[in-house]
Amino acid sequence: MSMLNELKVFSGNAHPQLARDVCDYLGIEVGVSEAFKFANDNTFVRIGENIRERDVFIVQPTSAPTNDNLMELLIMIDAARRASAGRITAVVPYYGYGRTDKKDQPRVPITARLVADLISTAGADRVLTLDLHAGQIQGFFNIPVDELTAEPILSNYFLAKGLDDLVLVAVDFGISKRARDMAERLGVPVAVIEKRRTGNDDRSETLNVIGEVRGKRALTFDDEILTGGTIVNAANALLEAGVTEVYCCATHPVFSKRAHSLLAESAYTEVAVTDTVPLNGEQMASNITVLSVAPLLGEAIRRIHEGRSVGQLFQ
Known about the structure:
The protein is α/β, with parallel strands linked by helices. It has two domains: 167 residues, Rossmann fold (3-Layer(aba) Sandwich), CATH 3.40.50.2020; 141 residues, Rossmann fold (3-Layer(aba) Sandwich), CATH 3.40.50. 30% of the residues lie in helices and 27% in strands. The strands form three sheets. A seven-stranded mixed sheet has the order 10-9-8-11-12-13-14, with helices on both faces. Strands 1-4-5-6-7 form a five-stranded parallel sheet, sandwiched between helices. A two-stranded antiparallel sheet has the order 2-3. Helix 1 crosses helix 8 and helix 2 packs parallel to helix 3.
């Protein structure tokens, strides 16, 4: 029996439109709450309705400004816990600090683990997220984590376009396993771009293309676009390797610095991303398409609430 009358979805300030779209899918209203900063820069949160013993979901990607949005999420979780919520699920479509998932240099932190500890300590009972930068981040939590993927949304979009002679290209070896899964959905071969990081400033050097791409259309694939440098370098390398046209898809449009400008000036015919991270008008370009993850998140929330399998969404 459906128990949606006991389900409450709240939103922080990071991405209220996504929370509204999720609630539209579920056929419910966004929960009443407020979150703002006092003059001393301290964050204040208040839940504006009774949530005692309710199943509470808090939608808050920890995108830029990352620290503010993360702190707001933690305080919202604490507010819900102190208001006697029956269960609290942190819905984090984009998991900030996901890149710091291991010690790859001496004397550096594993911040992705620290964030997991903070969310758990604040009082979350479970986490719902999309396409973590590294799969091991799930293991950083001592509470259940449901990791969704936007691959079906992205693959269905490009399947509908009916592109001939398509090859899927992983922009580095780290994403190659997911690229194989994506290629299987599309029914196309896979290629990989070998690259090397040149420092801690998000720059990378593209080395060479591994795989048969000459005379084909290429679809580059990554979990997120940050500065746009890696993606644009990939397009240039593919064109030099004989590709006739290049497309791009990624889950998280983080778009720091001049990413949108680089993409607008690049050789990409189209760049498809999702709305896990909010984009303002200045960050949009004519070749950027934004696909909604609200139905995916909404259905996952429904299934979690009703005690049904989330994994069956992808079978």
